[in-house]
C-alpha cells in the first residue's frame, strides 16, 4: 500500500485559498470572488476616518472586492444616497513592476455601471471628490460609459505597497457592490508622492 502523505499534500496545495470576509461598522468586505488576498479593514468610512483596506495582489487578472450592507441606510451621503471614503493599501505580490492601476465600480458583477444606477466614485461631489495615490499620482476619472479610475505616473516595485484614496457614492444604494481592480504592467516613470493627502 502506497503512503497517503504525497497524495494529501497535492490535494492541499491544489485547494483554493479560504475566502476572507471582514465586517467593519456595518459593511462586509470580502475577497470571495478572487484575484487577491484581503488582509485587514479598519476605520468608519468618513473623510476624517476612512475605511483602510489592506490587501495583497499577486496576479494580473481581475481582483474583485465585494462590499455588502448598504441597505442598512447607515452611510448617508453628503448629496443624498449613500457614501463612504476608502483608503486602499495594495501590496505588490507579483514579480513585475506596476505602471498603472485601474479601479472600477459595479452593482452587477458582469455589467459595467451606467449612469442610471446611481453608483460612482463621487460624481455628485464634482471637483471636491477625493482621488489620489502616493506612488501613482496621475488620476483619470471616467464617469461614462462606466465608473472607473486609472492611476499612473509612477511605479510600484515587487514587495512595495501603493495607497489610493477615493469615495464611493450610490444615489440609489443596493445591498452589494463590487470594486474590480486591474493592475497594468506598463513602462513606468519615477515614483512621485505629489498630490496625496497626508
Biggest sheet details: 7 strands, antiparallel
Radius of gyration: 18 Å
User: What's the helical proportion of residues?
Assistant: under 10%
Q: What's the tally of helices? A: 1
Task: Walk me through this protein's architecture.
It is a single chain. This protein has 1 helix and 13 strands. It has 198 residues and is mainly beta. It has one domain. The strands form 2 sheets. It has a 7-stranded antiparallel beta sheet, with no helix packed on it. Strands 3, 4, 6, 8, 9 and 12 form a 6-stranded mixed beta sheet that branches. The protein is globular.
What's the SSE blueprint?
Elements: H1 5-14, E1 21-24, E2 27-30, E3 37-42, E4 51-57, E5 63-68, E6 82-92, E7 100-106, E8 119-120, E9 131-133, E10 138-142, E11 147-152, E12 161-170, E13 176-184
Parallel strand pairs: 4-6
Antiparallel strand pairs: 1-2, 2-5, 3-4, 5-13, 6-12, 7-11, 7-13, 8-12, 9-12, 10-11
Features:
single chain; 198 residues; mainly beta; 7-stranded antiparallel β-sheet; 6-stranded mixed β-sheet; 13 strands; 5% helix; disordered C terminus
Summarize the structure.
With 198 residues, the chain is mainly beta. The protein contains 1 helix and 13 strands; from the N terminus they run H-E-E-E-E-E-E-E-E-E-E-E-E-E.
Amino acid at each position: 500500500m502506497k503512503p497517503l502523505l504525497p497524495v494529501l499534500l497535492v490535494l492541499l496545495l491544489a485547494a483554493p485559498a479560504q475566502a476572507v470576509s471582514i465586517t467593519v461598522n456595518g459593511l462586509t468586505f470580502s475577497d470571495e470572488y478572487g484575484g487577491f488576498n484581503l488582509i485587514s479593514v479598519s476605520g468608519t468610512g468618513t473623510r476624517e476616518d476612512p475605511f483602510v483596506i489592506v490587501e495583497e495582489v499577486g496576479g494580473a487578472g481581475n481582483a474583485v472586492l465585494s462590499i455588502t450592507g448598504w441597505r442598512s441606510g447607515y452611510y448617508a451621503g453628503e448629496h443624498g444616497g449613500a457614501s463612504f471614503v476608502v483608503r486602499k493599501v495594495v501590496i505588490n505580490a507579483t514579480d513585475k513592476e506596476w505602471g498603472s492601476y485601474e479601479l472600477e465600480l459595479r452593482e452587477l458583477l458582469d455589467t459595467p455601471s451606467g449612469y442610471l444606477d446611481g453608483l460612482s466614485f463621487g460624481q455628485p461631489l464634482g471637483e471636491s471628490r477625493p482621488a489620489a495615490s502616493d506612488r501613482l499620482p496621475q488620476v483619470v476619472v471616467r464617469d461614462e460609459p462606466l465608473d472607473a479610475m486609472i492611476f499612473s505616473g509612477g511605479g510600484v516595485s515587487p514587495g512595495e505597497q501603493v495607497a489610493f484614496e477615493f469615495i464611493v457614492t450610490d444615489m440609489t444604494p443596493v445591498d452589494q457592490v463590487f470594486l474590480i481592480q486591474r493592475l497594468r504592467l506598463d513602462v513606468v516613470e519615477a515614483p512621485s508622492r505629489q498630490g496625496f493627502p497626508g
